[in-house]
Model the fold of this input.
Amino acid sequence: MAVHQQRSRQGSRLMAAGMLAALFCSPVFSQTAAADSVRIRADAPARYTVQPGDTLWDISGTFLHSPWRWPSVWRKNPQIDNPHLIYPGDVLTLRDCDGNPCISLERGRHVVKLSPEMRTLPRREVVTPLPMSVLQAFLREHRVVDDAASPDALAYVIAGDNKRLISGAGDQVFARVTDSADIAALTSGKLLGIFRPGELYHDAEGKPLGYELIGIGEAALISRTDDVIRLRVQKAAQEVRNNDILLPLEPRLQAQDMRPRVPQHDMAGRIVGVPGGVRFIGRLQVVAIDLGTEDGIQPGHVLRIEQQGERVVDPRTDALVKLPDETAGTLVVFRPYDKISYAIVMEATNTLVVGDAVRPPR
Done:
């Protein structure tokens, strides 16, 4: 009996694979895929059950060679409220929709046993486009200020309470407000971020793009007298020192703003830095690129990473020959500034380095 069931399951998988292969190889599918630049993976499953910890990028990558092209094959199900929201336990099915590949959603069914005791059901977390916890954690410790607002031009710590040189969570500190500081944010109880100057990023010509600031902690405003403010440190990842910078906290990332998509116009930039001083770059690492809102960059923009081809010696002529450039990965922008942006590497086929070129996918 067990052997029969095993053979039956194997037969079902083979039948599903055969149906998908027939779909992928059909002339209609080939023409449509070429026109829309959507390529279904040869090993794409017929059905996929969403797992806890999945992201839409990961799920899309299970079916597509280009995960950001998910909307091209997504089929809305009118029987499901807000079919764009996907939860762990949901089942995605790859189908043939009038000769074109499409993916539809079946809501997962949850069985709840009734009992006299009152129970709190766990809240299901919607699957996000990108690993939001990684991005939020990064932004708590990093941000950029534009080159016109150098760290010397912002509010800064001048002393700790009782003449302390270093302070921590629960301590009071004093800071001085400069003319260019955000006065409107300085209201009682307002939380401010505490930062320390980091790297100054430059473009290929050596022009400054922005200062990176390293997050130290957060402090709440207690009072203000002229240009001096008193604050209480609420949290601190490192000790707070004199000359540390105070800035209003940036808004949190919203998952709905992180929908991966290709920029509408062409642009070209490069990786200019890796926060933390890492030399080699891999998947899910954050990089800084020399493209920002002034270039039309928005959160969710997808860029391919290109590496220059090596120069080799022609064995017959001894002349140097440059090999073709090659795509080495994909990144998604999640926090753009005026001239620079933070992006997360979502795919890396080679080891990436500072200086690699970035541009929209072909």
Observations:
- DSSP finds four helices and 22 strands in the chain.
- Helices lie at 2-25, 27-36, 56-63, 132-141.
- Confidence is low (pLDDT under 50) at residues 1-36, 111-115.
